[in-house]
């Protein structure tokens, strides 16, 4: 068989690591490193090329790029134009298969006999139920229909968790033989040296907690804060750093540090972000709703154990007592503090947790591992034709 040629299709700009949390970018990069000729489909541009294009052709139309996510993804014309372009690209450069991450809308108007591998971490039903997005029934119906069509058109469905796969089976008539579960990786250009990870074990006082999230309420910020208070109440020296949001008025404490925003595209700020992961002892994420938060894999890369909630796709990311622990949705700050106190009761126990957390990243929660499994799945699809 000649070299495997795989088309990569997404409306999200997969050449830009800032697009859609960087997930399509890291997927594309990891697959490009495999023995695959990856064909860019659609209209992807590097950030630099996109800037030049806008400056040259659309000097007075930049505001059009600021349309809301909902208006973009419910506008059929955009996807019809995209897929007309893609169909022409496939005629000029035929592929053995098409990989389509989070691309249900893109697939609705695409006409091709090439086998499609659809990749996602959720379904419209789950997003609507747990995130309350979209807000209108009309928009939700559009997403529902597109998901059904995308699943019908796809030869293989790859989900990042059993939670998402179960919804595809129950709500969208997917077939079990269509589905594979492959956890997402960590959006890191490089992982820290293993020797750096155990330095935090040398000083466990104070116990440094890290919380990262833009949405205080959805990410369970109040429970993280209550965890800090509970540890202090029981005489455990602790501090909590919050990154990405500002707590509501009235939430303040001398052991609480707040960093409202870090721009990871600025090298100095990215280094600061990484330093927080290296210097902290626990990543606390009492999230109320999540699909497959990339930050769990990132924490594992830094040997940082996560204490999080049993929601969404998190059970696919956490191996109990290896890279953290999962608590019931109903768990309180006291429960989170109990879990942390248990993990630091023995220095040897905590040091082992740092080691196994990094191993979880190296064996499962990295994009190279993801790409290896996806590559094998693509070969199965192509060889079964």
Descriptive report:
The chain is an alpha/beta fold and 385 residues long. The chain folds into two domains: 4-185 and 366-383, 3-Layer(aba) Sandwich (Rossmann fold); 194-363, Rossmann fold (3-Layer(aba) Sandwich), CATH 3.40.50. Helices cover 43% and strands 14% of the residues. The chain contains 15 helices and twelve strands. The strands form two sheets. Strands 2-1-3-4-5-6 form a six-stranded parallel β-sheet, with helices on both faces. It has a six-stranded parallel β-sheet with strand order 9-8-7-10-11-12, sandwiched between helices. Strand 5 (156-159), helix 8 and strand 6 (179-181) form a beta-alpha-beta unit. The longest helix has 17 residues, at 76-92. The two termini are 13 Å apart. Mean pLDDT is 91; it is low at 50-72.
Features:
385 residues, alpha/beta, Rossmann fold, six-stranded parallel β-sheet, 43% helix, 14% strand, globular
Order of helices and strands: EHEHHHEHEHHEHEHEHEEHEHEEHHH
Q: What is the top-level CATH class of the largest domain?
A: Alpha Beta
Biggest beta sheet attributes: 6 strands, parallel
Strand order of the largest sheet: 2-1-3-4-5-6
In CATH, the architecture of the largest domain is 3-Layer(aba) Sandwich
Number of contiguous helices? 15
Tell me the CATH superfamily of the largest domain: Glycogen Phosphorylase B
Described by the principal axes of the CA atoms, the overall outline is globular
Total beta strands: 12
| Uncertain spans | 50-72
């Amino acid at each position: 068989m000649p070299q495997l040629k795989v088309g990569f299709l997404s409306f999200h700009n997969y050449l830009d690591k800032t697009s859609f949390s960087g997930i399509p970018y890291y997927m594309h990069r990891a697959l490009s490193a495999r023995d695959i000729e990856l064909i860019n489909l659609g209209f992807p541009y590097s950030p630099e090329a996109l800037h030049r294009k806008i400056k040259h052709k659309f000097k007075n139309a930049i505001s059009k790029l600021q349309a809301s996510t909902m208006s973009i993804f419910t506008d059929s014309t955009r996807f019809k134009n995209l897929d007309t372009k893609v169909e022409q690209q496939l005629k000029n450069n035929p592929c053995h298969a098409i990989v389509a991450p989070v691309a249900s809308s893109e697939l609705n108007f695409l006409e091709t006999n090439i086998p499609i591998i659809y990749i996602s971490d959720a379904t419209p039903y789950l997003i609507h139920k747990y995130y309350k997005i979209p807000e209108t029934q009309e928009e939700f119906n559009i997403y529902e229909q597109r998901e059904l069509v995308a699943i019908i058109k796809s030869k293989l469905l790859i989900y990042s968790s059993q939670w998402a796969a179960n919804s595809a089976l129950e709500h969208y008539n997917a077939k079990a033989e269509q589905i594979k579960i492959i956890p997402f990786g960590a959006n890191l250009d490089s992982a820290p040296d293993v020797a750096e990870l155990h330095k935090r074990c040398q000083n466990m006082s104070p116990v440094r907690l890290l919380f990262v999230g833009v949405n205080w309420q959805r990410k369970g910020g109040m429970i993280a804060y209550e965890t800090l208070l509970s540890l202090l109440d029981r005489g455990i020296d602790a501090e909590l750093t919050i990154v990405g949001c500002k707590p509501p008025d009235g939430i303040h404490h001398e052991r609480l540090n707040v960093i409202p925003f870090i721009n990871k595209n600025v090298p100095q700020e990215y280094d600061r972000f990484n330093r927080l992961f290296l210097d902290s002892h626990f990543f606390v994420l009492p999230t109320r709703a999540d699909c497959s938060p990339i930050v769990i894999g990132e924490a594992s890369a830094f040997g940082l154990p996560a204490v999080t909630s049993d929601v969404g796709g998190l059970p696919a990311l956490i191996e109990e007592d290896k890279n953290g622990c999962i608590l019931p949705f109903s768990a309180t700050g006291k429960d989170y503090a109990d879990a942390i106190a248990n993990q630091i009761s023995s220095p040897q126990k905590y040091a082992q947790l740092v080691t196994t957390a990094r191993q979880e990243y190296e064996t499962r929660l990295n994009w190279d591992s993801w790409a290896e499994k996806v590559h094998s799945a693509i070969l199965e699809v192509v060889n079964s034709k």
